[in-house]
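Weekly sync, protein design subgroup
Attendees: M.S., D.O., the rotation student, P.L. (late)

Item 1: inverse folding check
M.S. brought a backbone from last month's batch and wanted to see whether the design step gives back something sensible before we order anything. D.O. pointed out we never logged the input encoding, so this time it goes straight into the notes. Structure tokens as presented (420 positions):
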């Protein structure tokens, strides 16, 4: 049996329906992955947005290999290790001044789930009952039950809706609806029953890279501070220069109480989630009362190999070459979007930092289940390009090592696709 045949027999893939083409990948290097048949593909979506510096980056691989001979893992309940301490210190230094403590976990959904539980228990520990959460329409925060509750209804969570708790959804802010959004938002905050406001800062990923105003989002965080409501930034997608700055919240004048990270934190090598919090949050749990202990944990929390990978990834961000590549990608993405945004086959074209998206004008609404994405995915795959569309929205989020000519090749093939 071939690799593909064995896969079909034994493996259940995520977000994959019957008839989806499964491509066996046997090797990766830089911005490329290679199929079992030797075909080269440009990884134009960073393997679900996680790969930052390229596949099999030798520096990260070497740091992980060295760590395997020192310590692979130790239970994080009551123990610690050098890689975790080093990583936590570095992240606190890089994150806004408001952030003081790091809680490790396993993935993006869990990082947000932890933030949700922290917000609920934060008020519980102080003897105050607050049960309401606010989030943006079209936000996506994960696939665990808490994070699904904080995600826009329908689509990703329709079979489970009857089990989800109610959330207040509000429109994303822009200059045209600013007064309306702020008015409704403040009216919800005045009720004194809001535990927290969670949001994808500036870019809504799964919704098709929709972009909203950082200035108005900052105003909303300011209102939360006024009414003593916790704020949670879901930076799972946007962290580590995806928006052109180290974190998306660096574009905001007011900073959140909690910041959730994952995807790019280890450069795409290991699974890790991070929930970073202010001292204000931590103090509500820092008690000899055992019931005030944060009631959450994982077997692989603070895994030493994952921490080593994350520290190596941060080392690479300090390299001048990495910074130059990021600036070049930001410019290339912006230039391409500006050149194509008036194309008659598009509903919209948008970019922010290293993220670019084009929305194809096709039948039906623009969403994940628009069938145009299946056709586009196969078309680009045949041409050696991996772009996993979100419905009729084509997304370009490349690793930072991608060559200028490879990005230009992707742009050229997009134009050919639109003409056909």
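Designed sequence read out in the meeting:
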């Amino acid at each position: 049996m071939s690799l593909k045949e064995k896969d079909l027999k034994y493996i259940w893939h995520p977000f994959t329906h019957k008839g989806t083409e499964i491509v066996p990948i046997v090797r990766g290097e830089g911005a490329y992955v290679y199929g079992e048949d030797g075909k080269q593909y440009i990884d134009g979506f960073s393997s679900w947005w996680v790969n930052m510096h390229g596949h099999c980056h030798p520096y990260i691989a070497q740091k992980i290999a060295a760590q395997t001979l020192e310590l692979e893992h130790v239970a994080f309940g009551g123990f610690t290790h050098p890689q975790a301490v080093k990583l936590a210190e570095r992240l606190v230094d890089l994150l806004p001044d408001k952030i003081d403590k790091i809680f490790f976990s396993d993935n993006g959904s869990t990082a947000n789930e932890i933030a949700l539980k922290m917000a609920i228990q934060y008020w519980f520990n102080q003897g105050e009952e607050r049960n309401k959460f606010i989030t943006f329409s079209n936000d996506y925060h994960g696939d665990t039950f808490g994070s699904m509750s904080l995600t826009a209804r329908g689509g990703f969570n329709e079979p489970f809706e009857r089990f989800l708790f109610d959330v207040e959804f509000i429109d994303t802010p822009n200059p045209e609806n600013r007064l309306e959004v702020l008015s409704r938002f403040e009216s919800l905050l005045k009720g004194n029953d809001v535990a927290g406001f969670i949001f994808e800062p500036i870019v809504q990923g799964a919704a098709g890279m929709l972009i909203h105003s950082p200035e108005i989002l900052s105003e909303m965080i300011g209102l939360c501070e006024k009414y003593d409501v916790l704020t949670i930034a879901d930076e799972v997608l946007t962290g580590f220069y995806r928006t052109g700055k180290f974190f998306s919240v660096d574009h905001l004048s007011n900073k959140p109480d909690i910041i959730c990270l994952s995807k790019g934190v280890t450069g795409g090598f290991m699974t890790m989630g991070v929930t970073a919090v202010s001292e204000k949050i931590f103090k509500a749990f820092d008690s000899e009362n055992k019931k005030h202990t944060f009631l959450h944990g994982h077997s692989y929390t603070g895994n030493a190999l994952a921490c080593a990978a994350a520290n190596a990834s941060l080392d690479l961000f300090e390299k001048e070459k990495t910074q130059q590549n990021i600036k070049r990608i930001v410019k290339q993405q912006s230039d391409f979007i500006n050149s194509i945004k008036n194309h008659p086959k598009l509903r919209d074209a948008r970019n922010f930092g290293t993220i670019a998206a084009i929305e194809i004008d096709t039948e039906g609404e623009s969403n994940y289940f628009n069938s145009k994405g299946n056709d586009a995915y196969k078309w680009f795959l045949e041409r050696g390009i991996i772009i996993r569309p979100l419905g009729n929205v084509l997304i370009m989020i490349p690793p930072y090592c991608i060559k200028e000519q490879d990005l230009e090749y992707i742009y050229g093939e997009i134009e050919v696709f639109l003409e056909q």
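Discussion: The chain has two domains: 3-57+320-419, 71-317. The chain has a mean pLDDT of 95.
Action: P.L. to compare against the previous round before Friday.
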